């Protein structure tokens, strides 16, 4: 269900989440982040959803934390629960994307800065409009990175490039972002959401169980030894072999047709 600062729409088996604070270039506050976390959790648990697209309304994808909330003290809630939460809403949001059981695609329609860029980095795929500008941004405001920036960015573009982008805070064009491996696809602005949605629908047509297990294996590999990862891969492969989707995949291959995976 949509709320004021987050629009939610199901298009077939793809759930589209649109950040809706265009007057602030979709900058995060605790409210919008909380709604997005809830929506991501719901999508992860909903069997009717097979892929997720995150994009922004207006000119921006997400300009990071809404620092206007810093002056009135509302950037981080002062509840006891929030004070005792070591991850706070920023970390919970990144967790909700990285550990989501569905593929998550960022459709970066405009500026992506700070935590907004981190959110895109946490996604499995990043589509960006040709006109968009990306920046880590933190150093410009005398801030150190958060939202998983120092974990995700080096793993995507390498340590040297991540150091450059974080310590300079410089703008990155869509073309440079593609060249350094920061994004997967550069698209004309008017075609961005449609292109991301078409890609999400292709992912959604895949086998849901194998897709989820594959994503979990990729994430767990960051902190596993080779032997641990080999064991995890074998365990998940055996689980896949028990599904009807494997039989459908093999049958479709033999019959030279497109498989129809049901998630069973």
TrEMBL record:
<dbReference type="InterPro" id="IPR014748">
    <property type="entry name" value="Enoyl-CoA_hydra_C"/>
</dbReference>
<keyword id="KW-0456">Lyase</keyword>
<dbReference type="InterPro" id="IPR018376">
    <property type="entry name" value="Enoyl-CoA_hyd/isom_CS"/>
</dbReference>
<dbReference type="InterPro" id="IPR001753">
    <property type="entry name" value="Enoyl-CoA_hydra/iso"/>
</dbReference>
<comment type="similarity">
    <text>Belongs to the enoyl-CoA hydratase/isomerase family.</text>
</comment>
<dbReference type="Pfam" id="PF00378">
    <property type="entry name" value="ECH_1"/>
</dbReference>
<dbReference type="InterPro" id="IPR029045">
    <property type="entry name" value="ClpP/crotonase-like_dom_sf"/>
</dbReference>
<protein>
    <submittedName>
        <fullName>Enoyl-CoA hydratase-related protein</fullName>
    </submittedName>
</protein>
């Amino acid at each position: 269900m949509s709320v004021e600062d987050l629009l939610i729409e199901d298009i077939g088996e793809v759930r589209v989440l649109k950040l809706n604070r265009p007057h602030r270039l979709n900058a995060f506050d605790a409210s919008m982040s909380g709604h997005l976390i809830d929506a991501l959790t719901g999508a992860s648990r909903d069997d009717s959803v097979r892929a997720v697209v995150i994009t922004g309304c207006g000119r921006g994808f997400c300009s990071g934390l809404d620092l206007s909330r810093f002056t009135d003290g509302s950037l981080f809630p002062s509840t006891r629960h929030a004070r005792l939460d070591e991850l706070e809403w920023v970390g919970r949001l990144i967790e909700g994307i990285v550990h989501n059981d569905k593929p998550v695609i960022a459709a970066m329609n405009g500026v992506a800065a700070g935590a907004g860029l981190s959110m895109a980095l946490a996604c499995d795929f990043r589509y960006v409009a040709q006109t968009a500008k990306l920046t880590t941004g933190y150093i410009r405001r005398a801030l150190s990175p958060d939202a998983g920036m120092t974990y995700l960015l080096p793993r995507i573009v390498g340590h040297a490039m991540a150091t450059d982008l974080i310590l300079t805070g410089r703008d990155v064009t869509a073309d440079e972002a593609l060249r350094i491996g920061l994004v997967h696809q550069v698209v004309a602005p008017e075609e961005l959401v449609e292109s991301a949605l078409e890609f999400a629908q292709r992912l959604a047509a895949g086998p849901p169980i194998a897709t989820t297990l594959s994503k979990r294996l990729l994430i767990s590999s960051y902190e596993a030894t080779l032997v641990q990862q080999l064991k995890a891969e074998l365990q998940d492969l055996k689980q896949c072999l028990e599904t009807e989707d494997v039989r459908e995949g093999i049958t479709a291959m033999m019959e030279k047709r497109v498989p129809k995976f049901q998630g069973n």
